[in-house]
């Protein structure tokens, strides 16, 4: 059976799903099967969309052949090739693959006038500026890129009449510098290697606004690229499991891919990596997110076996948190936190310490509320009582949001602050101003709780849409609307009077070109549009009961599909001439729909 990975904006691939069964190993490996890790990923080869730049058109000729994907096989026949002639100076070419990808580069070579391998420098970049930058050896300086997490800038050699497959990073652009002097080189193919998880997009979203459609698809694709062996933050940098950052990604996965195995696999891994009494990732707030993710995952999938598997970690974490919250509401979760991120929400909120304090306490309350529900499912009344006690104690000390949108959003979700008040005072003030790619999802959720669906859609169009206007094909680690002033697109070289938005901005650990332009935590609008425009709410574990409450705002219609363990639900909402919404819903057997 064929599965399809669909990136609506650019390309559709069709290929067979890779088998994971050990019986499919070559016979010579059967005896060693315990030492063989089966691959969960597959790959596809993609030709450049364009040759963006060459250093010397007289020395690099017939570049058009590179934009056609051919056999991928080196041979000695007189097929068309890109002719490269080096003299004393280096010659260079930049290729644009048209979209963000995860993987590497395949070069297919023909004749070379020397039997000695020619030396080349390869640079991968998420932007046109980054692909021309130098790395600073991990110093995290403005104007430089980094080889942290993935090598994106290196020197290697190429064969004649051969091929080279190299690289494993996130990129859209590749620059090749031909370093060896006085060489004549035939380059027959320079294809990107897309390494991806071959899974169907069973969830979908379409509406009368093409901009929102593009945003939904871009968020889905952003997360898909980060669904590697485990669920990552970013495919260029932060190729690691950060449990707290996963929640928006998990929300998107549940809306697009359903109950994909990468989520429980990653949760298992995080618990093994950080056994109790440690905080996950050494950050107390990330252990709180673990409880929230466990609740959401159970409600969507209804997997009681997985919940039971994590019983000890869930209850052990509750036992750890309970004595750290005093009867008067004073809490001490940072008591044994070694990380500097003792009160971490997200990076942009960090300078606002009072606001972070309010938001952090709200996050504890949210997590313990979800943990209480989990304990009831596990029939652990004693620990459910502990969770309830913690939230009651926290309610004795309500901190002010200090005009921090992240804090007000969490306070709304946790039931500490009325969503209408939070939006009037903070979240909706200035529209998308001071939104963040990570916590923007929770700001949008608070706006939905306050009934501000139209305002939320406007912010999605303005904030996430602005990244698309700048050439983004995936959503970024961080973004500020103020950056857009006089900014060049990321798929162009910054002209005089324009700013390179990738080079000139960023903060904390993501200065300049170290900034990730494909970060899964930025995918919130994808989940939000499914939840609030299509209007899908899960009322019973395993999606056995769904509440469908659409909010079309200024849209004429919206339609899509929603994956459940029992099958895919099809939904269409359309306004009649009087503005009333008419809905058509088709659900699999076993699912009850409440309107």
Overall description:
- This is Alpha-L-rhamnosidase.
- Keywords: Signal.
- Residues 1-21 form the signal peptide.
- With 595 residues, this protein is α+β, with helices and mostly antiparallel strands.
- Among the domains are: 44-196, Jelly Rolls (Sandwich); 274-417, no CATH class; 539-594, Maltose phosphorylase, domain 3 (Sandwich).
- Helices cover 29% and strands 23% of the residues.
- It contains 14 helices and 20 strands.
- The protein has helices at residues 27-30, 210-226, 246-256, 262-273, 284-301, 304-309, 311-321, 353-377, 381-394, 405-413, 419-427, 440-449, 453-469, 524-533, and strands spanning 2-7, 11-16, 42-46, 50-54, 60-61, 82-85, 91-112, 118-125, 153-158, 163-178, 184-196, 204-207, 487-488, 499-500, 536-540, 545-548, 557-564, 567-575, 581-586, 592-594.
- The strands form five sheets. Strands 3, 4, 5, 6, 7, 8, 9, 10 and 11 form a nine-stranded antiparallel sheet that branches. Strands 12-17-18-19 form a four-stranded antiparallel sheet.
- A hairpin with a 3-residue loop joins strand 1 (2-7) and strand 2.
- It starts with a strand and ends with a strand.
């Amino acid at each position: 059976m064929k599965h399809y990975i669909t990136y609506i904006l650019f390309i559709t691939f069709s290929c067979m799903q890779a088998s994971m069964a050990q019986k499919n190993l070559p016979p010579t490996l059967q005896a060693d099967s315990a030492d063989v890790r089966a691959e969960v990923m597959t790959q596809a080869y993609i030709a450049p969309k364009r040759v963006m730049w060459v250093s010397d058109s007289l020395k690099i000729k017939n570049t058009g052949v590179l934009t056609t994907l051919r056999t991928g096989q080196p041979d000695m026949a007189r097929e068309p090739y890109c002719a490269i002639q080096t003299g004393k100076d280096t010659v260079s070419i930049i290729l644009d693959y048209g979209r963000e990808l995860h993987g590497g580069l395949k070069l297919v070579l023909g004749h070379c006038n020397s039997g000695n391998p020619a030396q080349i420098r390869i640079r991968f970049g998420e932007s046109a500026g980054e692909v021309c930058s130098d790395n600073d050896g991990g110093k995290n300086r403005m104007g430089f890129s980094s080889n942290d997490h993935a090598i994106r800038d290196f020197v290697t050699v190429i064969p004649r009449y051969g091929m080279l497959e190299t690289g494993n990073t996130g990129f859209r652009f590749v620059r090749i510098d031909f370093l060896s002097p006085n060489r004549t080189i035939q380059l027959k193919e320079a294809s990107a290697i897309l390494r991806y998880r071959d899974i169907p997009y069973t969830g979908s979203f379409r509406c009368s606004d093409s901009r929102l459609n593009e945003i939904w698809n871009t968020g889905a694709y952003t997360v898909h690229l980060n669904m590697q062996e485990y669920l990552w933050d970013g495919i260029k940098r932060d190729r690691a499991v950060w449990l707290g950052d996963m929640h928006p990604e998990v929300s998107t996965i549940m809306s697009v891919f359903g109950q994909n195995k990468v989520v429980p696999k990653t949760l298992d891994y995080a618990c093994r990596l950080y056994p109790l009494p440690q905080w996950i990732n050494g950050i107390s707030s990330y252990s709180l997110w673990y409880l929230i993710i466990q609740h959401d995952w159970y409600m969507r999938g209804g997997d009681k076996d997985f919940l039971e598997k994590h019983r000890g970690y869930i209850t052990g974490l509750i036992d750890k948190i309970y004595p750290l919250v005093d009867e008067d509401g004073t809490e001490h979760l940072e008591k044994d936190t070694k990380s500097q991120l003792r009160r971490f929400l997200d990076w942009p909120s960090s300078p606002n310490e009072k606001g972070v304090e309010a938001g952090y306490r709200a996050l504890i309350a949210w997590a313990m509320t979800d943990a209480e529900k989990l304990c009831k499912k596990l029939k652990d009344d004693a620990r459910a009582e502990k969770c309830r006690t913690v939230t009651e104690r926290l309610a004795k000390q309500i901190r002010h949001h200090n005009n921090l949108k992240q804090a007000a959003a969490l306070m709304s979700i946790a039931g500490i602050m009325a969503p209408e008040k939070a939006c009037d005072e903070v979240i909706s003030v200035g529209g998308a101003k001071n939104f963040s790619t990570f916590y923007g999802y929770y700001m949008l959720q608070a706006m939905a709780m306050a009934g501000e669906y139209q305002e939320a859609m406007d912010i999605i169009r303005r904030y996430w849409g602005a990244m698309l206007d700048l050439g983004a094909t995936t959503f970024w680690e961080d973004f500020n609307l103020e950056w857009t002033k006089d900014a060049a697109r990321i798929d162009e070289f910054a002209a005089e009077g324009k700013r390179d938005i990738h080079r000139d901005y960023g903060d904390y650990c993501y200065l300049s070109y170290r900034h990730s332009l494909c970060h899964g935590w930025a995918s919130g609008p994808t989940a939000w549009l499914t939840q609030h425009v299509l209007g899908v709410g899960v009322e019973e574990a395993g999606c056995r009961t769904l509440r469908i409450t659409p909010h079309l705002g200024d849209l004429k219609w919206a339609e899509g599909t929603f994956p459940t363990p029992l099958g895919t639900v099809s939904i269409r909402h359309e306004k009649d001439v009087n503005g009333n919404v008419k809905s058509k819903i088709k659900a699999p057997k076993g699912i009850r729909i409440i309107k």
